[in-house]
């Protein structure tokens, strides 16, 4: 009976974070396919129109750390609930914006609201499920993020022709609101953040110090920065690659490349299972290697190879992200879980903005081949950093031939759950 209750609790947690991921990332990227319509209506060049996306991601990156600190005071569950509800309501308001400037203000506020979920989600999972149960749940969370990003783009792009950009954003907002309600009714309370309860401000600042001193955590931030930068750089230039010579696809057909995100939703879940069998470090290195292999596949001027390359690199990237995110959450000391989650997420979106821009510059000046070389170099740095990192307990097990990072992490079986459900609502 107790075991069934625990399993049911795990299912509720997994469903809640997956629904929150769909809500958050469908809203975050929904304006991307309708940028041409925005530019036409408001007389904007493509650069200004793109602010409808970039102001939200920039606001998210800025807000992540303050919200991570806030979660140490008020708890993870209230932050998640406030995040999904506020971002969904703001999504319903976006189609009513009377001007582009008002739209940008709403998008900036929405970016802050969305930041609440990625800032605390991984820490919430560790506190709720323990280190042993976090791998599969993080995989489900990343799968939800992946599906949300894909659905947001496809739903807005698919409905814009019939209903215009306002109707397209409204359709995504309705989908997100349903997911937000599902999150609210299913998400249980997290476990205690630390033995003495929520930490005071001094303890929170100390948590940031711990989150910045632990080498294994620094390695995960670097993976988030470099892998996300590589991923966004490739997708930023994908439209130019697919619509230009010699491939020559129409923009509508080229936009279907985002269907490759479906592979990411599968690989992020599979990654959680692989961690339990092979350990976090081996799984992470494998994900980075697959991402690099997929990137190399896009080099030839062959449409089947280019599409296959995007499918492979997308699967590899999201598996890498799932493992690194879960590893950072599991290795963070209890008082540093919120700060570690915030730093990881900030590195992730910093990689998106900086890496995406640098990659676009490289492509514009030197072409696709040099972009592939640049991205491969970033992935190699992430690979070498992950290869070098050792788990803190390595010295305690120095008599074993197996690396501690792999041996210790293999105990984190993805389907293992805590002995008792904690803080059931």
Structure report:
It is built from 15 helices and no strands. The chain has 425 residues and is mainly α. The longest helix has 87 residues, at 100-186. The chain starts with a helix and ends in a 15-residue tail after the last helix.
Straight-line distance between termini: 18 Å
Low-pLDDT residue intervals, each spanning 5 or more residues: 193-197, 391-425
What's the total helix number? 15
Derived from helix and strand composition plus strand pairing, the structural class reads: mainly alpha
- Please state the average pLDDT score: 78
The ordered string of helix (H) and strand (E) elements is HHHHHHHHHHHHHHH
Describe the largest sheet: none
Shape: globular
Strand content: under 5%
Strand elements, count: 0
Residues in helix, %: over 70%
Global Rg: 21 Å
SSE order and pairing:
Blueprint: H1 2-29, H2 35-42, H3 46-49, H4 51-74, H5 76-93, H6 100-186, H7 201-213, H8 215-243, H9 251-254, H10 261-278, H11 280-297, H12 303-331, H13 337-366, H14 368-388, H15 404-410
């Amino acid at each position: 009976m107790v075991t069934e209750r625990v399993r049911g609790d795990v299912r509720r947690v997994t469903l809640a974070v997956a629904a929150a991921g769909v809500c958050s990332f469908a809203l975050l990227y929904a304006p991307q396919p309708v940028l041409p319509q925005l530019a036409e209506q408001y007389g904007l060049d493509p650069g200004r129109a793109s602010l409808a996306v970039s102001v939200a991601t920039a606001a998210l990156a800025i807000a992540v750390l303050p919200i991570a600190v806030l979660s140490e005071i008020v708890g993870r569950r209230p932050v998640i609930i406030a995040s999904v509800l506020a971002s969904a309501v703001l999504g319903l308001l976006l189609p009513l914006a009377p001007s582009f400037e008002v739209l940008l203000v709403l998008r900036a506020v929405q970016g802050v609201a969305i930041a609440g979920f990625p800032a605390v989600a991984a820490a919430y999972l560790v506190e709720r499920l323990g280190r042993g149960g976090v791998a599969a749940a993080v995989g489900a969370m990343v799968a939800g993020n992946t599906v949300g990003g894909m659905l947001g783009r496809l739903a807005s792009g698919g409905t814009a022709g019939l209903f215009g950009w306002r109707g397209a954003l409204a359709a995504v907002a309705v989908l997100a609101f349903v997911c937000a309600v599902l999150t609210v009714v299913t998400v249980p309370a997290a476990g205690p953040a630390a033995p003495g309860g929520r930490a005071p401000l001094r303890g929170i600042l100390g948590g940031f110090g711990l989150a910045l001193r632990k080498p294994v955590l620094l390695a995960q931030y670097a993976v988030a920065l470099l892998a996300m930068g590589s991923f966004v750089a490739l997708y930023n230039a994908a439209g130019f690659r697919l619509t230009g010579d010699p491939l020559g696809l129409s923009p509508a057909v080229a936009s279907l490349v985002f269907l490759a995100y479906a592979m990411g939703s599968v690989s992020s879940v599979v990654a959680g299972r692989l961690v339990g069998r092979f350990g976090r470090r081996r799984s992470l290195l494998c994900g980075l290697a697959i991402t690099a292999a997929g990137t190399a596949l896009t080099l030839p001027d062959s449409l089947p190879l280019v599409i296959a390359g995007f499918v492979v690199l997308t699967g590899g990237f999201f598996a890498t992200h799932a493992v690194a995110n879960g590893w950072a959450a599991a290795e963070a000391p209890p008082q540093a879980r919120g700060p570690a989650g915030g730093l990881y997420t900030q590195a992730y979106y910093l990689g998106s903005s900086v890496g995406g821009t640098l990659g676009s510059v490289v492509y514009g000046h030197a072409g696709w081949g040099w972009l592939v070389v640049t991205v491969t170099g970033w992935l190699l740095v992430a690979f070498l950093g992950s290869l070098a990192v050792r788990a803190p307990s390595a010295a305690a097990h120095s008599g074993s031939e197996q690396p501690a990072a792999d041996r210790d992490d293999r105990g984190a079986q993805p389907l293992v759950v805590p002995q008792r459900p904690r803080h059931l609502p």
